[in-house]
Amino acid sequence: MDNTSASKVFKGVGASKGVGVGRIFILQDYGSLVSRKALPDRPEAELLRYRAAKERVWLRFRQDAAHIFKELGPGNGNILDVHALILKDQVLNQEIELLINNGKKAEVAVETVFRELSDRQKLAKNEYLQERFTVSRDIGRQLVIELLGVHRLEVVRGKGDVIIVARELTPFALAEHPDNIKGFAVQTGGPTGHAAILARAYNIPMVLGIPDIEKAAQDGAQAVLNGSTGELIINPLPEVLADSLRLRDRELVAADKARAENASPQTKDGRRVDLLMNIETTRNLDVSNANGADGVGLFRSEFLFMHRETPPTEEDQFREFEKVAKAFFPRKVVIRTVDFGGDKQPPAGLETGNSSYSGLRGIRFCLAHEEFFETHLRAILRAGAAGNVSVMFPMVPGLETFRKAKALLKKAKDKLEAEGFKLGAMRTGIMIEVPSAALTAGALAREADFFSIGTNDLLQYTLGIDREDSSYSGYGLFLPPSMIQLVQLVVESAHERKKPVAVCGELAHHTLAVPLLIGLGVDELSMDASHIPATRHDIRALSYAACRELAQKALALETPAEIRELLKNALK
Ligand code: PEP
Ligand code: MG
Question: Cβ–Cβ contacts within 10 Å for residue 194, how many?
């Protein structure tokens, strides 16, 4: 066997489960497509060519956004909004047109300006700007591709089953992909990035963080991508290929069965775990796409404020909240008050102070902007007249902050009632996202109606590792002992007061984590609707008694690796 056909295994981070089999297709980096040789004779014609290409890309962004809404429902709604805004940015356009007027070809001008922008963003201290660098690079790439007349993922259409190998993959590229793509093996990116969220929602296996894969892979080679183990096997041995095909077929059958199943999400011995849905927008809200969700467990209301020239008024907000409340009635809808800060910037005109992940974030931002908060609470309270709405506050560190937020809620309610609004009681909950809240859950449980554990942030703040950092999953830290102990403390404290506990972070649909969370006594799991069928299927195969035993064993372990091993063995 010569070297080029030797079987090789590459390890990365599994970001979307499942097994894909196909031939390797290496996506070229767009920069290498741009030839800088010939200069255009007529800048005017080049300018027109640029503007027409920009319009076509703009139209495609809009079509892709509509496509994402249609296919994936509201949860992933505005992933492409930021792309559209950057594409229309006046300063960038002026820079590009200036280069074209100075004699550069359109694709060279675009590539230069967007490369400089994304390089600046990559080096920025501000995390929000840093995150934008892949978006900028993606837009530059789309424009160049349009100008050159080649399409990225489109190029594989009709080429049989393929595994895409790329240095980097963006949500834009994924939004419209041919069906013959069976997997993505990518050098960069983290599992909580939007490309990974879309791959999971589209059920395409994905492995991220494979070093130098673009150089190591051979175009056209047979490959197996396992998004569950995080492996890419190039030129698999015949028996490995046969095993992988069997595994793939079994998973496809299981997924189809899970989707068709609308039985109650309860364990074999009768413990029901409500499955709710996380949403970010009300656009294209269609309850028939909710995969049988028991309601909305987390409405990330800050997304209503994104990409608008002016913040939504009380009336605007009220209409959005009411739309969700009515769509799901009588099922419950939990509206989280806005969680600005970190990667979600507040609307223009409001003093942000330090709005990093550990700055003026979540409820702290609202308490610093009482007038703004009052308008927001009024809209939520008015929507609550429907009877199925609860409110919860993000990033609450302890009792004092919760009391302040509750006092403002009461004040807003009293005022509305004095104005003649008829409002019922509104259940008020706390997101447990910082260790401080988890450690004082006993006191919080006395005064809150429910808890929802935001594991994305709770992990980030417990471990001191940025949630967007891909090395995070590389360390295999997804369930450290500290996290299990915190969840147990929160559940025990809540249950002592007969208050329910949900989990609404990404752990809520993690196959390994679900039995443990149930065993620890979590009452509800909330997730993107796309994950509900598989999670329901998982729950129906579990025994609550075994989950409880598993949780007790996990609580006695001392390292994340031991815990992972225990959970993996339990699944077998
Ligand atoms: C969380 O932190 O787990 C959570 C659900 O909130 P978000 O992801 O919006 O920060
Ligand atoms: Mg959070």
Answer: 19
Residues of the chain with pLDDT under 70: 1-4, 29-41, 65, 67-82, 122, 124-134, 149-152, 170-173, 175-176, 192-194, 255, 257-261, 283-284, 306-309, 343, 345, 348-349, 351-352, 355, 468-477
> Which residues touch 412 (CB under 8 Å, ≥6 apart)?
374, 377, 378, 381
The kind and range of the H/E element at 233 are strand 231-234
Question: End-to-end CA distance of the chain, in Å?
Answer: 36
Is 177 tagged catalytic?
Answer: no
DSSP output for 269-315: TS-B-EEEEEES--TT--GGGSTT-SEEEEEEGGGGGTT-SS---HH
Q: Ligand 1 mean position to 443 CA, how many Å? A: 22
Catalytic residue among 177, 194, 376, 531: 194
Q: Is 146 in the pocket of ligand 1 (CB under 6 A)?
A: no
Of 24, 40, 53, 39, residue with least CA distance to 141: 53
Domains of the chain: 8-27+151-245 (3.50.30.10), 32-148 (1.10.274.10), 267-571 (3.20.20.60)
pLDDT digits (tens, 9 = 90+) for 45-81: 889 889 988 888 888 777 776 766 666 655 555 556 6
The rounded distance, in Å, linking the Cα atoms of 202 and 226 is 16
**pLDDT tens readout for residues 248-258:** 888 777 767 66
CA 388 and chain centroid, separation: 26
Probe residue for ligand 1, chosen from 306, 343, 457 as the CB with the greatest number of ligand atoms within 8 Å:
457
Decide: 504 in ligand 1 pocket, CB within 6 A.
Answer: yes
In one-letter notation, the amino acid at residue 441 is A
> Residue with structure tokens 């673009």?
214
Q: Please tell me the number of the ligand nearest to residue 458's CA.
A: 1
> In ligand 1, which atom is closest to the CA atom of 454?
3
pTM score, two decimals? Answer: 0.63
